[in-house]
Structures are given as structure tokens and as C-alpha cells.
Structure to design on (130 residues):
């Protein structure tokens, strides 16, 4: 499927696509991969009902865990303010500026956690409109 991607990451991406069918993955400079997950539903408290998210699969994955994520550039809290721990930043390999969240996973076990685990971490953050 994707040249030079580990078989573990490839299988995990296929599982992610089963839950989020429109998801895409692309190689970006430095040996990393960018995952794009469209149509992620948002709870009340945001200025839009859905967003697209992006995150980088780092070199060394799954021993090295994903860190931080991006959402639609226009995403704001319902009040119009920026979410906590966010800013505007270019998505690696895409160049387009989006809303970047400085959000870190608390604990990562490469024998248990997957790309889908990381999407769940992102969703947990987005479920708290703050």
C-alpha cells in the first residue's frame, strides 16, 4: 500500500479507515507520515459541527508516539475565541496553515496503542470545548 511504511503502521491505518472511511495518509519529508481524518464530529461548544484533523506519525513509530494535532483553520470555541493550547501553524508536508493543538498523550504503550488510539486521544480533547 504505502512504500516504506512499517507493516504495523500500515495495518493500523487500515483499521483507522474502517472507523473513519475518508481518512488518508501521505509521506512527508523526514521519513514521517501525515494522517488526515475528515468529518470528525464536534460537541456543542465549538463554532462548527465537524472538523478535519491531521497528525504526524513520527519516525520510529510505534515506539515513538504521535504528538500534537491540527484541526480546521476556522475552528474556534462557540464564543469565537481560540481554544486553549492552540495556535496557527502550517501542517507539515502540506504547507497550509491550520489550527494547531499542543496536546500530548499521557501514556503510550507501543504494544497496545495504535493510530486509532491517538484519534481517540484527539477526540477526548475536542470533546472538551475549552
Amino acid at each position: 500500500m504505502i512504500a516504506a511504511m512499517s507493516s504495523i503502521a500500515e495495518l493500523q491505518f487500515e483499521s483507522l479507515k474502517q472507523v473513519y472511511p475518508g481518512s488518508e495518509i501521505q509521506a512527508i519529508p523526514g521519513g514521517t507520515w501525515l494522517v488526515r481524518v475528515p468529518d470528525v464530529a464536534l460537541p456543542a461548544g465549538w463554532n462548527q459541527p465537524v472538523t478535519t484533523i491531521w497528525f504526524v506519525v513520527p519516525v520510529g513509530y510505534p515506539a515513538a508516539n504521535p504528538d500534537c494535532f491540527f484541526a480546521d483553520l476556522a475552528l474556534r470555541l462557540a464564543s469565537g475565541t481560540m481554544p486553549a493550547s492552540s495556535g496557527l501553524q502550517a501542517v507539515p508536508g502540506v504547507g497550509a496553515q491550520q489550527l494547531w493543538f499542543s496536546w500530548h498523550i499521557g501514556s503510550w504503550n507501543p504494544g497496545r496503542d495504535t493510530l486509532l488510539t491517538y484519534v481517540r486521544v484527539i477526540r477526548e480533547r475536542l470533546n472538551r470545548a475549552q
